[in-house]
Write a structure and sequence with these properties.
Number of helices: 2
Structural class: alpha+beta
Radius of gyration: 20 Å
Number of strands: 2
Distance between the termini: 51 Å
Oligomer: single chain
Order of helices and strands: EEHH
Strand order of the largest sheet: 1-2
Number of domains: 1
Strand content: 15-25%
């Protein structure tokens, strides 16, 4: 199986970055390169960062949706101050 290594740069703090290497099957690597080209991403790293941001947004939406459902079921906690969060 053909693999390539993609260097992904993950931003942790304002100026700190870490390099993460990811091995992909050739077909998947080709698909990534095609997406980068067709969607005007500056690099593979930019595309991967976009995917991670989208993934985090989807997780947040799911969490908020679940919280709203719990609220509708009356399972919410009434907070009288921010201290009640702790």
């Amino acid at each position: 199986m053909c693999k390539i290594v993609i260097q992904c740069i993950i931003k942790y703090y304002k100026f700190m970055r870490e390099v993460i290497n990811v091995s992909l099957p050739k077909a998947m690597a080709d698909q990534v390169r095609l997406e980068v080209k067709n969607n005007d991403y500056a690099s593979v790293s930019e595309f991967i960062r976009h995917l991670i941001r989208s993934w985090n947004t989807q997780k947040l939406v799911l969490e908020l949706t679940n919280d709203r459902e719990e609220f509708k079921k009356g399972k919410a906690k009434e907070l009288k101050s921010l201290k009640d969060l702790i």
